[in-house]
Structures are given as C-alpha cells and as structure tokens.
Amino acid sequence: MPYDLIAVGDLMLDGALPAPIAGGRVHGRIELRAGGSAANAAFAAARLGARAAVIGRVGADAAGRLVAAELAAAGVEPLLARDADVSTGCVVVVGGTSIVADPGASIRLVPEDLPATLEAGAVLISGYTLLQPGPGAAARAALERARTDCLAVDAASANLVAAFGAKRFFEATATAGILFANAEEARTLTGLDALGAALALARRYRVVCVKLGRSGAVATTGGEIVRVEVQPVDRDDTLGAGDAFAGGFLVSLSRGAELAVALRVGCDSAISALLERD
Questions:
Q1: Which residues contact 160 (CB under 8 A, 6 or more apart)?
Q2: What is the pLDDT of residues 65-88, one digit of tens each?
Q3: Contact at 8 Å (CB) between 230 and 271?
Q4: What distance lies between CA 107 and its chain's CA centroid?
Q5: Is the pLDDT of residue 17 over 90?
Q6: pLDDT by residue (tens digit) across 194-219?
Q7: DSSP secondary structure letter of residue 29
Q8: What is the pTM of this model?
Q9: Smallest Cα–Cα separation from 166: which of 194, 145, 189, 184?
Q10: Contact assessment for residue 195 and residue 218, using Cβ atoms and an 8 Å cutoff
C-alpha cells in the first residue's frame, strides 16, 4: 500500500497577522505557511513518520508553488491540480481571533482531479469540500474511490452542516466508517451535547471522535467510550489543530492502536501542530 494516509480537501496559504490598530501602524510578526484541512492533517501524519499524500487544487501561482514545496519538504506527496484561472486559496488569522478566508482554487476541485483509486491505510475527506456545491462532487467521488479500512469524514463547519442538513449529511457520508466533529458540529447533527452526540452518532459510524478544544476529545466505538484530557496551549490562534488531531488519530488507528491510544495520539498531534508555530 503506497500511503498510510490520503487527505482530500482544501489547500490554502495560511497567514497570521497581529491585531490592527485603527488608523495606526503595527510592527509584529507575520506568518505564512501551507495550510487548509487536508494539508494540516497530512503534516501531522508525516510528523509521525507516515507516508502521506494530499489531493486538492491550488492556483498556478507563487502561493500554489509555496504550498506544494512546503508539503514536499515535510515528506507529504502533493497530488495537486493547478488552476490557471483562479488563485490559491488563502486564510488569514488577524489578532489570533478573527479569520478572513478566500477559498480560491480549492473550491473548484472536481472528480477529474482525483486518481482512479485512493488506496491507503486511511483516507480523510474534509467537510469543507464535501458540503459545498462546487467541490462536493469531488468529495463524493473520493468516498466512492477510496480503498481503505479507515474511511473518515471531518464535519469541518457547523454552519456548513446546518446549511447542508443533517439528513443529507448522513446520506452523503453513509460509506464512511469514521466521523470527526467538534462539539458544535456534533450538536448541529444531533441536538445533543458532546457525549450524547458521540453515542448517537456511533449508531451510524464505526468510530466517532468529538473534539473538545482545550478540554481534549471523546471517542466511541462498539460501545466503548474513551475521553482524553489535554494540557491547554496558551494561544488564541488554533487554526488547523483539529485537522492535525484527525491526521494523528487516523495514522495511529490504522496501525492497529487501541481507541484510547489513538485518541491520545490525536490530541498530542494537535498540540504539536500548535507548538510548532512558536
């Protein structure tokens, strides 16, 4: 099997800016890095020594080349389509709390951008791709073409889930065995709190992970319920931590780890992704 993890979804140039002062000049650190849900998950997998690949669409521009080069430098194979008409997507975090997003080329991913078969230890599909009209067909194609025992979907956005509808979401993800959601997304799908949502969703998916941010995560499979707590990281910008959690969890689970071990690896991967920016 050529890959331990294939991540399918949005690829972006991530930026972080200090908080502005109205009418004033701010001197501070400006960060630029490859990002997007698929890249973040694959980076986490690569940090664990996994063979990871990313499928997505970027612009035929300098930002797209930077994203591809950063993926390759981290040991992730960039299986990227290049869009000559639309620039690479970009997400900018301002002051650690405000986010400005331009999806750019990532929202133009189409089934033709995917290989005929996605064979890996685990395949992860981003909800940002699945739940939007433009790239949704590509995400559905990825679900159909996946050849893996660990086919996972990350809900990605409570707003997107709400707009898409819970019933449609369950229908679209019926072939997936693993679901990732944060507490808000899980509530949107079920109307329940994190633990209740995990148990309810476990009737539809083999493994359910509900991410709890600074409070860790809870997971369930086959009646087993596991919760892991974490030492909170003191930073406001947590962009990509949930994606890193998914990447680490899937690599560990696909290697045969017990649920509690995989959950701990997922949480540690999220923390490592945040600390790596310091």
A1: 127, 128, 131, 132
A2: 999 999 999 999 999 999 999 999
A3: yes
A4: 15
A5: no
A6: 999 999 999 999 999 999 988 999 99
A7: -
A8: 0.93
A9: 189
A10: yes
CA pair distance 186, 182, nearest whole angstrom: 6
* pLDDT tens digits along 220-232: 998 899 999 988 7
Radius of gyration of the chain (CA): 18
Q: Which band of pLDDT confidence, cut at 50, 70 and 90, is reported for residue 243?
A: very high
What is the three-class DSSP state of 150? coil
- Type of residue found at 211: K
pLDDT at 235: 67
Tell me the β-bridge partners of 70.
none
DSSP β-ladder status, 89-94 and 98-102: antiparallel
Amino acid at the residue 100: V
The pair of three-digit structure tokens given for residue 93, joined into one six-digit string: 């975090």
CA–CA gap between residue 207 and residue 212 (Å, rounded): 16
Q: How far is CA 67 from the centre of its chain?
A: 16
Residue % of the chain over a pLDDT of 90: 78
**What pLDDT sits at residue 5?**
98
CA atoms within 13 A on the CB side of 232: 8
| Spatial distance between the Cα atoms of 109 and 103, rounded to a whole number of angstroms | 11
Instruction: Provide the residue type at 30 as one letter.
Output: I
Rounded distance between C-alpha atoms, residue 149 and residue 247, angstroms: 15
